[in-house]
Structure prediction request, 254 residues.
Amino acid sequence: MEKNKNNANCPEDIIAGRNPVTEALKSGKLIDTIYIDGAGGGSLNVIRRLAKEKGIVVKDAQEKKLSQLSGGASHQGVVAVAACGEYVTVEDILAVSQEKGTKPFIIICDEIEDPHNLGAIIRTAETAGADGVIIPKRRSASLNATVFKTSAGAASYVPVARVSNLAACIDQLKENGVWIYGTDASGTEYTGVDFTGSIGLVIGSEGFGISKLIQKKCDFMVKLPMFGKINSLNASVAAGIFMYEAVRQRSLTR
Prediction:
């Protein structure tokens, strides 16, 4: 399909301009996030309304951000970032283990904002056989082109749920018999913890770890041993170690 003239110089996952974004919303195109000039009105308000009806995240953005996203193309105060896949519900993720006849194995990302880290986590989750990944709507990377590429296509196979309230989501998981394991230096060493049951593994943000509210929701806290001068690992690297310890333990009980 030939690109709209507004989008001639845009990256492949970007839609710029009021009419192109409006038409994309009306056509049902998969859209991850819409960035809008907060001072704009008129047709921009129509875009906000359409996005809200479809549950799409809308963020206010200044001219510099909009121009950066659109690659310098005419954006008319609005830029949409296409999604590389559809989000599912938490119920959909819980249904995966029910269909497989296994205990839930779910990865929860608490404010992982680097799309490369989120993509790497999704890739490892797929290879480890996790049932799905849960991310918050705000302060998190999402299913954009960078995540898709970094995941090496795994984002096409791993169910990803994006929730408005991560704490409430954890409560929902607990109601379904899932034990929540947070990852923090204050926890028990990971090899001494039982991961063979129904588990939700929380991976904290790159700079701040797991938020205080989410820490309070965790049933257990686990950690990796650190022997060097640097006391933390990249979020996706740490996630991979925890996930494969769960894989090792669970394979022994089969």
In short: Residues 133 and 160 are 5 Å apart (CA to CA). The chain is about 35% helix and 20% strand. The domain at 5-82 is CATH 3.30.1330.30 (60s Ribosomal Protein L30; Chain: A;). Confidence is low (pLDDT under 50) at residues 1-11.
